[in-house]
Specification:
Helix content: 40-55%
Largest sheet: 2 strands, antiparallel
Order of helices and strands: EEHEEH
Number of helices: 2
Number of strands: 4
Radius of gyration: 41 Å
Strand order of the largest sheet: 1-2
Length: 180
């Protein structure tokens, strides 16, 4: 309850501070709630309209220039169900062209709209992912088979070489014994 800035010890569940650890508190500078001549701008929102109109503020009815863009916001604004088509309820803006006087309408691109195209694309992506996974698994099995075959051949070749080397040394020793 001050006119200027104060340093307040903030704790959990306050708007200006998010604690990083459990039970953490921090002293931060914030402006008091009393308005004074030092304020340049005060952002206010009219919640309840009184008996008389405020000139330039509540005396004229001004519709919202831009409508909601996100699917959930459109559903909420027009009280729609899941099965209702949201595209029919997008707020279109009428724009009059100066050159020829024609009127055309602009509408925002609806965000997070789940269409048949999106569902199809998602299914295709899932199928491709599964195919890649099975293909990779099959390739791994093939690689293991080839590797085991190669190792068996290598083992057999080493065995054969050692057997040949043994026979060659035996022959040499026998010929050396005969010469003596």
């Amino acid at each position: 309850m001050v006119n200027g800035r104060v340093r307040i010890l903030f704790r959990q569940r306050t708007t200006l501070y998010r604690p990083r650890r459990c039970g953490e508190r921090k002293r931060k500078s914030a402006r008091g709630c009393i308005c004074g001549p030092d304020l340049a701008v005060i952002a206010l929102k009219v919640l309840v309209k009184g008996d008389k109109d405020v000139e330039g503020l509540t005396d004229s009815e001004r519709p919202r220039r831009l409508g909601p863009k996100k699917v959930s916001a459109i559903r909420k604004a027009f009280v729609l169900r899941k099965k209702d088509d949201v595209r029919k309820y997008v707020v279109h803006r009428a724009i009059k062209r100066e050159s020829d006087g024609k009127t055309f309408y602009k509408a925002p691109k609806i965000q997070r709209l789940v269409t048949d195209k999106r569902i199809r694309r998602k299914k295709v992506n899932q199928r491709v992912k599964k195919e890649k996974w099975t293909k990779g698994k099959e390739a791994h099995v093939q690689y293991e088979k080839i590797l085991s075959k190669y190792l068996k051949e290598k083992k057999a070749a080493v065995k054969k070489d050692t057997a040949e080397a043994l026979t060659a040394t035996k022959k040499k020793s026998e010929t050396a014994d005969k010469k003596k």
